[in-house]
């Protein structure tokens, strides 16, 4: 089936928020507890509208249905939704700083069909075209195998405090642009 990757629009935010919640609750259930998912949704895991406004948040569309989303950023924020407390919208310097790969979520019934890979490659190509020579991300435990498959290496492991008193394990990963 044909897959189209294109920039997300702000009008699609409600659809994306639903997709994100389904993705987290179903695909991440083996890696995080219900309490961790409850605390992370809308803060650490969720939609960052700044990426949409920047034109760097992408959706994968199959047969008219959004089946995945993810993006890249030229801003310092490593992960999180609109309400994440450690937000830093300062700009990154291409060729010096690493572009941030951000907020990948796939519809559960479409998982493991190459959608995440297609979005990842589109993000990497766009960031490289903007002059970035390295990529960095804060990956969920669920996402680590995908990113490792495409050359990302673990830099460190973070324990991110959540508003409900839980902590969420996030893995900081990095990759240099292939020559």
Please tell me about this protein's structure:
The chain is built from five helices and seven strands; from the N terminus they run βαααβββαβαββ. By secondary structure, the chain is of the alpha+beta class. Strand 6 (153-161) and strand 7 (167-176) form a beta hairpin. The chain has a single domain, classed as Aminopeptidase (3-Layer(aba) Sandwich). The protein has a seven-stranded mixed sheet with strand order 1-2-3-4-5-7-6. It has helices at residues 13-27, 34-40, 49-54, 115-129, 144-149; strands at residues 4-7, 57-62, 65-73, 99-106, 134-140, 153-161, 167-176.
The second-level CATH architecture is: 3-Layer(aba) Sandwich
Compressed to H and E, one letter per element, the order equals EHHHEEEHEHEE
User: What would CATH call the class?
Assistant: Alpha Beta
Overall pLDDT level? 95
CATH homology superfamily: Gcn5-related N-acetyltransferase (GNAT)
How widely separated are the two ends?
31 Å
Category by helix and strand content: alpha+beta
Give the overall form: globular
Question: What is the number of helical segments per DSSP (H or I, 4+ residues)?
Answer: 5
Named CATH topology: Aminopeptidase
Tell me the total number of β-strands. Answer: 7
Helix content: 25-40%
Low-confidence runs:
none
Q: What portion of the residues fall into strands of 2 or more residues?
A: 25-35%
The domain count comes to 1
Radius of gyration computed on alpha carbons: 15 Å
Strand order, main sheet: write it out.
Answer: 1-2-3-4-5-7-6
Write the layout of secondary structure elements.
Layout: E1 4-7, H1 13-27, H2 34-40, H3 49-54, E2 57-62, E3 65-73, E4 99-106, H4 115-129, E5 134-140, H5 144-149, E6 153-161, E7 167-176
Parallel strand pairs: 4-5
Antiparallel strand pairs: 1-2, 2-3, 3-4, 5-7, 6-7
């Amino acid at each position: 089936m044909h897959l189209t990757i294109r920039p997300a629009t702000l009008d699609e935010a409600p659809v994306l928020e639903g997709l994100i919640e389904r993705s987290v609750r179903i695909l991440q259930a083996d890696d995080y507890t219900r309490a961790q998912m409850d605390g992370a949704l809308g803060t650490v895991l969720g939609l960052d509208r700044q990426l949409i406004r920047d034109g760097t948040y992408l959706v994968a569309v199959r047969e008219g249905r959004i089946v995945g989303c993810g993006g890249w950023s030229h801003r310092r924020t490593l992960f999180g939704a609109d309400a994440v407390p450690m937000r830093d919208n300062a700009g990154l310097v291409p060729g010096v700083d690493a572009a941030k790969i951000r907020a990948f979520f796939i519809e559960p019934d479409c998982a493991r069909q190459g959608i995440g890979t297609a979005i990842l490659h589109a993000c990497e190509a766009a960031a490289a075209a903007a002059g970035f020579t390295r990529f960095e991300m804060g990956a969920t435990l669920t996402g680590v195998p995908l990113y490792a498959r495409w050359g990302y290496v673990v830099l460190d492991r973070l324990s991110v405090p959540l508003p409900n008193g839980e902590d969420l394990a996030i893995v900081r990963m990095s990759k240099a642009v292939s020559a």
